[in-house]
Structure formats: C-alpha cells, structure tokens
Design goal:
The chain is mostly helical and about 200 residues long. It has helices at about 5-20, 20-60, 60-65, 70-90, 105-115, 120-130, 140-170, 175-205. Helix 2 (about 20-60) packs parallel to helix 8 and helix 4 runs antiparallel to helix 8 (about 175-205).
C-alpha cells in the first residue's frame, strides 16, 4: 500500500470512529458510571469486535452476510431492539444510585454486543474492505498495514469518549445533572435503536 493510500485510509477510519454512535454513547456512559480503569474493558471489547470484523471482511464473510438481505435485516432488527431495551432501562434507572462494583465481564460483554450489532460497524468494515483493499494485491499483505492502523485509531477514539464520560461524571456532582446526563444517553440509545429498526424494516420492503 502506498503512503498516499494509507493516509486516505487513516483519514477515513479516523472520521469513522470519531463520529458518535452507540459505541461512543456506551463508552461515555461507562466512564460516568465506573471510572476510567474499569471502563477500558469496554474499549477492549470494541477492539475485539473490530479485529474480528476486519478479519471477516478480509475473508469476505461480512460481504456475504450483507448479500443475504433476510439475514442482514433480522440481525439489524435484533440489534435495534437491544439498543432500545438499553435506552429504556437506562431512562428508568437514571435516578437510581450507580452500582460501581459492576463486574468487568458484564462491561466487556455488553460493549461487545453493542459493537457487534451496530450497523455502522458493518458498513465501515465493508467500506474498508471494498474501497481500500486492492484486489490485485495479496489481501494479507495489505491487512498487515490496515489492521494496526484501524485498531490504534479505534482505541484512541473510544478511550477518548470514555475519558469524556469520566469528566462529565465529575462535573455532574449534583444529582439532578447526573440524572439528566444519564437520561440523555438513554435517549441516544433509543434513537439509535429506532433508526436501526427503521432501516431494517425499510430494507425488507
């Protein structure tokens, strides 16, 4: 891969991971609730999903999933329901004192599910595979460059969102502001879920 091609890919990926989505909302929510250290398990989960999706993209399995409209629609609709569930639960428990002893396995598992069902992720990895991988060049030789770039930018972005959540948590010392922020994040989950569900229904028409 040429230096120019790498710069274009890195710029695309930076915009892709910095643009707010369910992963960013979850990282901010974790930062507010659990602090930076424990919340980094969610960033690790996102990196796990990113690694898996990049490998799947290289093999063309992700493209095969999208080629099956029914399977893709079912996956997106299930993901939409999960995000809406998280949002509704977040709204209902916004005034409940935070449980700071949440197990790291739970933080990791929830983040992994959110990252996996995120339609934005599928679109991004498909774009990375279809736009930046050259068909006339061995795939794995390119992935040796693309994967570390993507994973480093992903880690920086979502660690930043987590740190932002920690900062918000410290600023929102008053209970009323803490509840407002948590309900705002809950609304974001519902909106993302509704948009994902609408997209899945529309694609099935």
């Amino acid at each position: 891969m040429s230096m120019q091609g790498w710069i274009i890919f890195a710029s695309f990926w930076a915009v892709f991971v910095v643009t707010p989505g369910p992963n960013a909302v979850n990282c901010m929510s974790n930062g507010m609730s659990f602090g930076l250290g424990r919340s980094l398990w969610a960033v690790l989960a996102i990196l796990t999903q990113a690694t898996a999706f990049l490998l799947l993209s290289a093999y063309g399995i992700t493209a095969l999933l999208v080629a099956s409209p029914t399977a893709f629609m079912v996956a997106k609709f299930g993901g939409a329901l999960f995000l809406i569930f998280l949002g509704v639960r977040g709204w209902m428990t916004a005034a409940t004192p935070l449980k700071l002893n949440s197990a790291v396995g739970s933080i990791y598992g929830r983040a992994l599910v959110i990252a996996t069902i995120n339609a934005k992720s599928v679109a991004g990895y498909l774009a990375a595979f279809s736009l930046f991988v050259q068909p006339d060049v061995p795939v794995w030789g390119q992935m040796v460059v693309l994967m570390p770039t993507a994973l480093c930018l992903t880690a920086l972005s979502y660690t930043g969102y987590t740190a932002l959540g920690v900062a918000f948590g410290k600023l929102a010392m008053a209970k009323v502001f803490n509840v407002m922020i948590r309900r705002g994040l809950a609304i974001c989950f519902v909106v993302y879920g509704a948009l994902l569900g609408a997209a899945s229904v529309q694609s099935g028409l």
